[in-house]
Amino acid sequence: MSAGEQTITVGTAGVKPAVARRWKAGAIQWGTAALVAVLVLAPLLPIVYQAFLDKSLYEKDAALTLRKFVDLAADPAFGPALLNTLLFALLATVLSQVIGGVVALLVGRTNLPGRGFVSNLIVWPIFISPLVTTTGWSIVYGPAGYVTMLLKLSTGVEPFWNLYSISGMAVVAAVCQAPISYLYCLSVTRSSDAALEDSARTAGLKPWRVFARITLPLMFPALLISGILNFVILIETLSIPLMFGRPVNIELLTTFIYARGLNAARPDYGLISAAALILIAVIVGLTLMQRFLLRRPERFVTIGGKATRPRRFELGRWRWGLLAVMLVYLLLLVLLPLTGIVVYAFSSFLTPLVPLWETLTLDNFKLVFATDNYTRAFWNSIVISGIGGLLGTALITMLVFVVHRSEFRFRRTLDVMAMLPRAMPGIIAGIGIFYATIIIPPLGWLRETIALIMVALIMRYIPLGYGVITAAMLKVDKQLDRSARVLGADWWTTMRRIGLPLLKTAMVSCFVILFIHFFKDYSTAVFLYAPGGEVLGTTMLQMFLSGQTGPAAALATLQIAMTVLVILLARRISGVSLHG
User: Fold this and answer.
1) Which of 14, 84, 337, 425 could form a disulfide with 236 if both were Cys (CB 3.0 to 4.6 A apart)?
2) Nearest to residue 437, comparing CAs of 416, 459, 420?
3) What angle separates helix 220-235 from helix 166-191, to the nearest 10 degrees?
């Protein structure tokens, strides 16, 4: 049966009374809105409330006060942590934008050899947990890292890099975030109107002047928007400052909150919430700025024209030299840290003093598979990512239907609310969800279960999936909906018979993206996991911090292998591509 015949069948089925159809649509729309509101606001409101209490919010005699903000300002560690956070995020953002923008230009607008190979490799850090990437950098480039020791032994020269510094942390973070700026800029370079460049060439401008005066300025919106997004992500990062900053007393806001929450003998929840609220306020401001820029992209357009494929710039004799630079970057900063993790997983120890083949062993994997906590963490993560990804995709799809394909009264408010979790770092989302289970008794049973972690992850990554499915929904002509309604189909039948089939590919993409992010997440679960409810991220974090690098590397290798498998299966089965 053809798609057109299916549409007609929808209309010719029994037509329900108008009132009943409105009740059905209203129930679904209000139910979706209520569920999203609870998910988004439940962790946020307790944090705001706790920040203005003199005691823990579950204590009956807690009173309103501004004392915690005064205590926070007086804390000698808070000011330096705030300044360090801004400096780290700014430096890493600049580096990531330079890397991503340059590679996007070379891949998208020049005749660089091996463009497809470079494009595929540069995006891989976005699929790997920052915790794993950070550990790989430590194994390879740390003070006792393999490359560091090899350089000392072979040349007697101290390496020029130092990961245990703000600049060192910024380089690691920039490599992790460069794929975001790359994808934004690549989209612009591939779809930009060639009329301006052709006009400049006709006027006699040389290729490098066309490049500098036309091509680069047209990338400014993509660089600015992806830069804001990267800055937001870098402000909330935990693994890099935790592993490279705290050992040398470089505190960032996330490690400040972590130290006074999870690691404190008697956590001061009011102080934690006050710090979290300041962090949220900064991120909200940046997110609003990004939304403002996205709402009016025409501000950056000077001349319109017929869409044509941009001409590639000829690199001439520079093309092979630039390819060599790209390959060195990918080898040293992307592949080598990940290779270090995998090699360490199969070694008893890793040092240039002993030949690698003499240290090879499967003991780390044997220990992992023989330890209940480790295997349970792996399978818990699989369950959370699989079931959570399905539930999250279903909820987000319904949310997109309500916001973009209904007459729901509060759909604009719901649209804004769907993006609020972007302003909530994982560690803060975990604290907020924990508070919610305390002050809302019906949620108490979720504590110390993996279901709570699943709920927290669904909430946190609503904006990510929402963007994927919304982009696909906006490409579907509303005339299809109107045709079905004319033939007698109600709102839900229209969405079920027309919307869902047309969004199938986008829903698969959404599920895969949610699965990968759930699987690699660690910061959200830091305050939520309990014995028996361990997940990969929190287990590896504790192992790395306690010096169990070998077994932790084995777990990280399993995580990398599972991520690669999921991406390859998604491409094979449905043809879904997760990047440009």
Assistant:
1) 425
2) 459
3) 150
CATH hierarchy code of domain 82-303+319-354? 1.10.3720.10
- d(CA 385, CA 511) in angstroms, rounded, equals 9
Residue 564 identity (one-letter amino acid): V
Terminal-residue alpha carbon distance, the chain: 34
CA distance 229 to 177: 10
- Can you name the CATH fold of 1-41+362-580? MetI-like fold (1.10.3720)
C-alpha dihedral (426, 226, 293, 313), degrees to nearest 10: -170
Which own/partner contact pairs does 303-308 have at CB distance under 8 Å and 24+ positions apart?
Answer: 303/193, 303/195, 303/196, 304/193, 305/193, 305/195, 305/196, 306/193, 306/195, 307/191, 307/193, 308/193, 308/194, 308/195, 308/198
Contact call for residues 456 and 447 (beta carbons, < 8 A): no
Residue type, 541: L
Distance of CA 462 to the CA centre of its chain: 11
Q: What pLDDT band is residue 7 in, cutting at 50, 70 and 90?
A: very low
Which token pair is 230? Answer: 């990267």
Pick from 160, 127, 163: which is nearest to 243 by CA? 163
Distances (CA, A) of 36 to 411, 418, 514: 12, 7, 17
Is the C-alpha dihedral spanning 197, 203, 208, 212 positive or negative?
negative
Angle between helices 67-74 and 78-109 (to 10 degrees): 80
- The pLDDT of 281-296, averaged and rounded, is 72
Domain ranges of the chain: 1-41+362-580, 82-303+319-354
**Rounded distance between C-alpha atoms, residue 560 and residue 132, angstroms:** 9
Strand partners, 347: 360
Q: 396 near 469, Cβ under 8 Å?
A: yes
CA distance 460 to 40: 8
Point out the least confidently predicted range of 24-33, 413-422, 471-480: 471-480
List b or e across 241-263, with b for residues whose CB sees 16 or more CB atoms inside 10 angstroms: bbbbbbeeebbbbbbbbbbbbee
Q: 10 Å Cβ neighbour count for 144?
A: 10
